[in-house]
């Protein structure tokens, strides 16, 4: 089960970004300002209801400020980031519309959905809500130590990745070497050992398998005439092999051997028929 969530991002509180606060998307575009997560900080994080749409979220935040909403009042210039079934979409809050911002969060960059400011995070498989306390980077990916917001130090911590997906539980000593090993196990899960291919036992072999087991398809004839499979040696019923003359098998020898095989097979069939009549 995936838990759907959304977050609100606001421009960071820095002097160089002050001129871009509460501006329209057109203004930012005209002034070549990049609407990317590196320029923003998370102000709110909560669960996404099944019926929620970006417009409904905007209206709800404009009408009522949640208690755990941090930062400036919600409004134009903010970005709503929705994580729905693992698909992340960012919406810039413009004056009269919501503008989809492609690349606001890039999984291959330092742009992440979860940050050290994250609070009220729902984690699939973990009860309650969680807040970020530590961060580490392993193989260029961000991971966060999350603490339960109610039980605090009394409950074991957990680790999530940048999208909020659970990585490991029962973390009691922070992001130490043991925790990093668990992250590496998450990144590189151990491969399941495949059983070695075993040749089927002789009594399980299908007729066609005998041909390939002996290395050449032409031994099909021999496998139909030999009484025992372990006597298949390239010579039907132990008949002689054709001579090699000038690098090629003798055609006359092959014809004689074929005739001998037919006669031997016929004789065997007649003996079987006699034995059957005697039983009756």
TrEMBL record:
| Region described as Disordered: spans on this chain | 260-280
A Pfam family of the record is LPD18
Q: Which stretches make up the YodL-like domain?
A: 6-96
Domain Large polyvalent protein-associated, first and last residues per copy:
110-192
Enumerate the spans annotated as DUF4316 domain: 216-256
**InterPro entries annotated for this entry?**
DUF4316, LPD18, YodL-like_dom
Protein name as it appears in the record: DUF4316 domain-containing protein
């Amino acid at each position: 089960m995936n838990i759907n969530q959304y977050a609100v991002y606001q421009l960071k509180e820095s002097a160089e970004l002050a001129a871009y606060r509460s501006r329209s998307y057109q203004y930012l575009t005209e002034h070549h300002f990049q609407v990317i997560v590196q320029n923003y900080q998370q102000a709110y994080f909560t669960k996404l209801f099944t019926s929620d749409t970006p417009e409904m979220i905007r209206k709800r935040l404009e009408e009522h400020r949640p208690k755990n909403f941090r930062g400036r009042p919600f409004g134009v210039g903010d970005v709503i980031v929705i994580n729905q079934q693992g698909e992340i979409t960012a919406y810039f809050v413009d004056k009269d519309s919501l503008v989809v911002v492609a690349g606001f969060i890039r999984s291959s960059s330092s742009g992440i959905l979860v940050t050290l400011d994250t609070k009220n995070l729902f984690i699939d498989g973990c009860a309650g809500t969680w807040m970020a306390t530590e961060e580490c980077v392993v193989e260029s990916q961000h991971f966060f130590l999350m603490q339960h917001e109610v039980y605090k130090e009394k409950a074991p911590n957990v680790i999530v990745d940048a999208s909020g997906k659970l990585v490991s539980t029962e973390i009691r000593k922070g992001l130490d070497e043991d925790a990093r090993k668990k992250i590496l196990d998450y990144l590189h899960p151990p491969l399941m050992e495949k059983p070695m291919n075993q040749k089927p036992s002789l009594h399980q072999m299908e007729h066609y398998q005998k041909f390939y087991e002996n290395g050449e398809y032409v031994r099909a004839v021999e496998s139909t005439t030999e009484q025992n499979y372990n006597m298949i040696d390239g010579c039907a019923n132990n008949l002689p092999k054709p001579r090699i003359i000038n690098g090629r098998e003798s055609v006359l020898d092959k014809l004689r051997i074929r005739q001998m095989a037919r006669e031997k097979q016929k004789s065997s069939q007649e003996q079987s028929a006699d034995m059957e009549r005697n039983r009756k």
